[in-house]
Each structure stands twice: as structure tokens, then as C-alpha cells.
Amino acid sequence: MKEINITTDYIKLDSFLKLAEVAQTGGQAKLMIADEMIKVNGEIIVQRGKKIRKGDIIEVEGYDKYIVV
Asked: Which 3 state secondary structure label does DSSP give 5?
């Protein structure tokens, strides 16, 4: 599990995917989310604006698990 550090209270899911270098563009992040490739705390998420906070665990199909610190 990789740790991703954020300096704000939260980050939106699509921005998180770019920060974690899973998606190179916002469009790619949008497609990954729409294709139900992303789980946050064990639940499939389809809202790209989902707020990701410290302590959340993000699983990306075909990639890795990430924890926000």
C-alpha cells in the first residue's frame, strides 16, 4: 500500500488519481471512475467529485492500494 500525502482537508477523487500518478489527465481519471475501477474504503465510487480525506483507502483496479495521509 502506497501513502499519498495531502496538505488540505480533502481532495477530489479525480485530482487524487492524478496526484497518485494513476491517471495522467482529468479525462483519463473520469473514464476510470465511470468504468467502476475505483473503490474508496471498499465501495465502488462513480462520482469524480467524491471528497477523499486523510485515512481513506483507495483501491485502483489493475494498480495498487493507496492510503491518504
From this structure: coil
User: What's the Cα-to-Cα distance from 7 to each of 10, 36, 42, rounded to whole Å?
Assistant: 8, 27, 24
DSSP string, 3-68: EE--SSSEEEHHHHHHHTTS-SSHHHHHHHHHTT-EEETTEE---TTPEEETT-EEEETTS-EEEE
The CATH code of the domain that includes 55 is 3.10.290.10
Q: How many structural domains does the chain have?
A: 1
Q: For residue range 2-41, what is the model confidence (pLDDT) as tens digits? A: 999 999 999 999 999 999 999 999 999 999 999 999 999 9
Domain span including residue 17: 2-68
